[in-house]
Amino acid sequence: MKNGSIRRIALALAAPFAAVVFATIASSIFLLIAGSNPFTAYGDMFEYGSRLEIQVDILNRATPLYISGVAAAIGFRMNLFNIGVEGQYRLAAIVAAYVGASVSLPGVLHVGLILVVAMLVGGAYSGVAGVLKVTRGVNEVISTIMLNAIAISGLIAWLVREWQAGGSVDATTSNLGVGTEPIDESGLIPNINSWLEVFTREIGKGKELTGVILVAIVVGILYHILINRTRFGFDLRATGINPFAARAGGVSDKKMVLGAMVLSGVVAGLVGMAEIAKLGRFNPNFVGGLGFAGIAVALLGRNHPGGIAIGALLFAFLDTASGVLQVTGSASREIVFIMQGIILLAAVIAYEVVQRFRIREEARLASALLEGDAQ
Amino acid sequence: MILKQIRRLPTWARWASFATLGILVLTLVQELGQNETNHLTAMTTSQTALKWSIPILLAGLGGLFAERAGIINIGLEGMMILGTWFGAWGAFNYGPYSGILIGIIGGAIGGLIHAIATVGFGVDHIISGVAINILGPFAARFLSSEIFTGYQGGSVTQSPRVESVDKFTMPFLAGGYDTPNFLKWLGDKDIPILSDTGNIFRGVLTQTSWATIIALLLVPLSAWLLWRTRFGLRVRISGEDPWAGESQGVNIYRYKFIAVMISGGLAGFGGAFITIEMSSIYQEGGTTGRGFIGLAALIFGNWRPGGILAAALLFGYPYALQFGDFDGFASHALLLVNAIALFGVTIWAIRKSKHADAVIAFVLATLSAVWYFIADTVPDWWVKILPYVIVIVVLIFFAQRLRMPAANGQIYRRGQT
Lengths: 375, 417
Known about the structure:
The structure holds 2 protein chains of 2 kinds. Chain A is mainly α.
């Protein structure tokens, strides 16, 4: 039995490992074609990534990626594809920043209010796609993409002008200014440099480790409990594995779709919080692309809370450490995009291959046992 | 009664009568509406609308080939992005026609990856598609940083300007090749309905790019290929019942592979069209979700080429209204058009005794009409989101009504029944 579990873990790790190795080799080929030395480039990245300040940057980047990954994974667990995290988190961020700036409350309450508003907005917006799917059979991939476009090119572009600090701006001006009114200090999640400095030296260069990382950890733990320890999580997984069996078992698939969609949006609402805590407001250049990166991270981590964390750290490392390539000139920093893309695709294929291998293995084992019984 | 008459007509005449009905509504709204606008049936509007429809049409046709072969292609957007990049690169170095061809190849590479993952390895179609949608922009960003940054006027996010393909203006009807311009004459007469129709056709027939014409010819060509050839029959059996096809000795894998590559190629064409014909430049994020709108067109078009064309024109129209509608009057007038259309859907739903549809259509129609009558104009953000809202509203009514290929989205492995 012991042997079997080691084998299982090895199999589970084989796929992502193969994907990373494959992606490294493929990226090296791209680098060689582009006329750069892959070893120097990777060496530079690892050297850079080993500095404490850069590790803080990596964690800061991994935090929203992780939350975004969990948001996507909640849907993926039941084959529900919430591609709308992108629109949900940005809409949630601007509304939360606006509400946060217009009240003054003592610390914990203020932070709590901002988080709750963000979660509500995210959940409500993804809920639209859920309702459309449940009541009208509208494919959630298309509807969430359309809702992304509506949120980003319509609602947010409008709100950022309407809620401009110092009065709304006319549609015709191109100057979008600084963004929404600043949030009071009490509403901003503080950095937790001191916590990290217990284990390490002092963090220099004005780098701050975002306190939202604690929110991300809580989200991860709750996600684990929800999926593995609750009725809802069981139904969710059952619907994902075999919707017909789940329905026969009394699971209302409509309720599950709606529930998973809303929950996914609720988590998505938190994605922008690290940025809000850093900026103290929503500004026109608010960080984008975290929703799509989160999908990649969720696929990479096989929707597993720990796997998503590894995926988020890997992508954050690539994003952050690539900055050094620009400085040393050993390669173009965009190489990490091709690496991320190949890692994702290779991982998706490798998981399928391993999964198929595992099923065949189990079938062989079962038939061997049956033959043993017959004799 | 009129509807019954229409239903008895042959297909082309039925489409023509629907189109006439549409023009009639547009004209009436313009003539009798609150605001003075002629933008709804202006020549420039129909010209722009046709142009904006083409990428959606090509993405939709791309989806058609893949889904007729049973492979869901959510990755159309990513393949389209590859098409925009390769189209720009090809057009910059070898001219616009080669640019389109290279864009098609770029999209087909995306299709090949999707085929390898879904057909070769049996990966879930949507997961593979989502991965390609993420890979596409990443690859384009990397390629730009390697290649476009070395060009004058290029950068990580954009290419230098590229040329468009030649234009065609219909002789006699629209005055091409120094012939008389009949439709201009008709449009200038200012006869209700007739002049509006003339203007609409004049826009479509004036300065039409050959790329547009080729794209439109792909509609009958796809229909012929899929429904009138042995190849098409085998593609469709791969999507309806691959196991039955297998038992007849059809190499299902091969047809799925070819179909998904054609699918990627068409999406790549759409992307190259955006670069070469619309923006004259590759821009990061230039596809703005039109690959997904193509999928919506595929659904609304009931997995048929003609339906996809109609859907693409419908989805392209609100984009065209954005241009030149500086006072928002035309988009405001469109509210009334939408209301009329939705009241039409209400009546249709009542006749088919679909009560939920009827209630939703009636509520939306009333909202649209009320908004039209209480406001003089619409805010600019509404103009921006209108194309996407229309896609969602259309899907609300048609997502469940239509039939997709029976084995669409199922993972087929040879030798398993």
